[in-house]
Amino acid sequence: MKQVLVVSATMGEGHNATGRALAEAVHRLWPSAEIRWLDALDVRGPGVGPLFRQIYVTNVRRTPWLYEFFYAALWRSRWFAAACKRFTGAWCGRRLARVVGEPDLVLSTYPLGTAGLEWLRRRGLLRAPVGAWISDFAPHPFWVYGRIDRNLVMHPVAIAPAVRCVPDAPVAVSAPPVRGEFRPGDRNAARRRLGLPPDAFVALVSCGSLGFGQVSSAARELLAADPSVVPVVVCGRNERLARSLRRLADPRLRVLGWTDEMAAWTIAADVVVTNAGGATGLEALACGRPVLMHRPIAAHGRANARLMAEAGLAVVCEADGELAAAVRRMLDTPELWKSMAESAARHLESAGDLGSALRALAAV
């Protein structure tokens, strides 16, 4: 029986969503495989996970300039990035050494966990093949490591920045690490099931499980763009956001809390509106849906937006009114929407499936 270790972290839901997709693909390939999970934050000691999560939330919501400064410093200074990675790797690696065991395959979805795994590999404490799935569309120096077996990026345009992070790192392109239900599907059938109007222009707004960023302004712009637009806003666990949106009392606006139907809502949509470009962007890509990046969040959100636009998979809307204008262009020029959807479909065809990436990693 194959023993597979997934190293993730509860930082929102994106990293765990990637881990669940990989676990699903493992069971398709090796039905008898035993999968074990480790949270790279929780293994560091009591209170570390909650502290890191609070730091992240505070940076994104209240001090984005500080988050942007740290992110830029990783790129500006190789010494700074290397020092941060060494410190993090030693801290996490020593803790992982106590619990990692002897798996046959290790799959990492969280960069600080990958740092610890590389620390173990350098010291001969981990022999199993290690693959890191870089679920951000744009890699950054904390994501990429030279002493693991695969750094899996999400699109060919991400190879160059990954290699720039660590020139000798083994980098390959993976299919989007999303659950199998995220795939091109019947838009009309999905709309009938979800009670959406068949002829509307449906914009799915999803900004992660915490509902980060300027979600309310996105909803307002979409409502103002055209009477045919039906915004569906997924607020995740952000109940305050859901309450404020419901106060708009617009009959076209659909407000959802936490939902297990994200695949159906994505398939039903004409376009996905988000601001980080992580798991939501990958789910849109896997369903062949174009993305509008509305006021991307600091650091990795802006980097993801730029690279997705370069790949022809997204339009970036930074200023007031740009989201509404982008939707009107899509309504007036359907070729724009079609070309973005075709770019997504071409990538899905060329990337294969998660199984091929897992087989290649296991064969190392």
Automatic annotation (TrEMBL):
<dbReference type="GO" id="GO:0016758">
    <property type="term" value="F:hexosyltransferase activity"/>
</dbReference>
<dbReference type="Pfam" id="PF13692">
    <property type="entry name" value="Glyco_trans_1_4"/>
</dbReference>
<dbReference type="GO" id="GO:0016020">
    <property type="term" value="C:membrane"/>
</dbReference>
<keyword id="KW-0808">Transferase</keyword>
<protein>
    <submittedName>
        <fullName>UDP-N-acetylglucosamine:LPS N-acetylglucosamine transferase</fullName>
    </submittedName>
</protein>
<dbReference type="InterPro" id="IPR009695">
    <property type="entry name" value="Diacylglyc_glucosyltr_N"/>
</dbReference>
<keyword id="KW-0328">Glycosyltransferase</keyword>
<comment type="similarity">
    <text>Belongs to the glycosyltransferase 28 family.</text>
</comment>
<dbReference type="InterPro" id="IPR050519">
    <property type="entry name" value="Glycosyltransf_28_UgtP"/>
</dbReference>
<feature type="domain" description="Diacylglycerol glucosyltransferase N-terminal">
    <location>
        <begin position="51"/>
        <end position="162"/>
    </location>
</feature>
<dbReference type="GO" id="GO:0009247">
    <property type="term" value="P:glycolipid biosynthetic process"/>
</dbReference>
<dbReference type="Pfam" id="PF06925">
    <property type="entry name" value="MGDG_synth"/>
</dbReference>
